[in-house]
Specification:
The chain has a six-stranded parallel sheet, with helices on both faces. It is built from twelve helices and twelve strands. α10 packs across α11 (286-294). Helices cover 39% and strands 18% of the residues. The protein is of the alpha/beta class. It starts with a strand and ends in a 13-residue tail after the last helix. The longest helix is centred in the N-terminal third of the chain and has 19 residues, at 62-80.
């Protein structure tokens, strides 16, 4: 915690606080290289900020000063966990504080799901943290949101975590091979070559979370299985962590088939983006239909992520937000079932 000293206030106008940062905290880490973080904080608040040593003087409207104090306190807490502070971290903490959530930003950004080769996988937004918590609490969790919001990546991290802690015995990763109508026999090559284009994104994420040299052994042993959705038909999947990715490209019948594969001791996570539907025109998306059917069913949770949760390049979030705004403004009769994937 930071210490606050020399608090004074003019009635109804301005207040002055001095935050004393613990000497154990590196001020360069807190304020950023070349005071880059400090400059961000100054732009974000209607307050004057002056730094001398480990003392940060804040003066301005009481609400702004109080929020700036909270921001500094959250950043100090994050540094104490051993994490570095980036400009993105400052932005995300500030966004959470402005949203007046009950969760502490430091708790959200410090939740370590998985570590591999010195790299930690953590939620980066409040909605991501709630999504991860929902996976822990529910047997079936839906993560619905646009590209880049981490819905599949975080689900896979939770799956690997469950495997490592022996909560489950295997991981099953699946996607609908919709572009081929799941009729893989018409594609050239071996079975592996036929399905590779549809499952490659899952393999790529897996390589971030598991030592690459161990993946072939895990696949050969069936501990990790990556398969098109059609290959799950007729099976009962026990003691498994099952992820269905790109679920917007399932039909309602396929979605029902998938969900009813659930066996004892298993957990399901379904991810998808209802604005990126590749199904033939006139075909309903199983992801759109299932929420109407299962909302209110015990132990099933629906989580939505938005452009604010995009963790790719900043411009991706702006692009997603622009498309969302365009969809809101477009006449209802001109909206397609789903925007075609680009």
């Amino acid at each position: 915690m930071t210490d606050t000293q020399n608090s004074s206030q003019d009635p109804g106008t301005r207040t002055r606080h001095t935050v004393v940062v613990p000497t154990s905290i590196d001020m360069v880490s807190l304020l950023g290289p070349g005071d880059a973080h400090l400059a961000m904080i100054e732009r974000a608040f209607d307050a004057e900020i002056h730094v001398r040593g480990n003392r940060i003087a804040l003066e301005g409207e009481p609400g702004e000063v109080a929020l700036a104090e909270r921001l500094l306190d959250e950043l100090v807490t994050i540094i104490r966990t051993g994490q570095g502070i980036s400009e993105e971290t400052v932005e995300r903490v500030l966004a959470m504080l402005r949203a007046e959530t009950t969760e502490r930003p430091a708790d959200v950004l410090s939740l370590n799901i998985l570590s591999n080769r010195g790299r930690s996988i953590r939620p980066k937004t409040l909605n991501q943290k709630r999504y991860v918590d929902s996976i822990d609490k529910h047997t079936i969790t839906f993560g619905i949101g646009p590209a880049g919001t981490g819905k599949t990546y975080l689900a896979m991290a939770k799956a690997v975590q469950a495997l490592q802690t022996k909560t489950v015995n295997r991981i099953i990763l699946s996607r609908p091979a919709v572009e081929a109508g799941e009729r893989l026999g018409f594609l050239p090559g071996t079975l592996s070559e036929k399905i590779d284009p549809y499952l490659r994104p899952l393999y790529d994420a897996l390589h971030d979370m598991v030592d690459p040299e161990s993946i072939p052994k895990l696949l050969a042993a069936g501990t990790i299985e990556v398969a098109p959705l059609a290959f799950l038909r007729g099976r009962s999947l026990n003691d498994s962590f099952i992820i269905l990715d790109e679920a917007q490209n399932t039909t309602p019948e396929q979605m029902k088939m998938f969900l009813t594969r659930l066996g004892f001791g298993s957990k399901i996570v379904v991810t998808g983006d209802v604005t990126q539907i590749d199904l033939p025109s006139g075909t309903r998306s199983g992801l759109k239909v299932v929420e109407d059917i299962l909302t209110g069913v015990e132990d099933v949770a629906f989580n939505r992520l938005t452009s604010h949760d995009v963790v790719r390049h900043k411009l991706v979030g702006k692009i997603v937000a622009a498309y969302e705004q365009h969809d809101v403004q477009a006449p209802v009769e001109s909206r397609p079932e789903g925007r075609q994937r680009q």
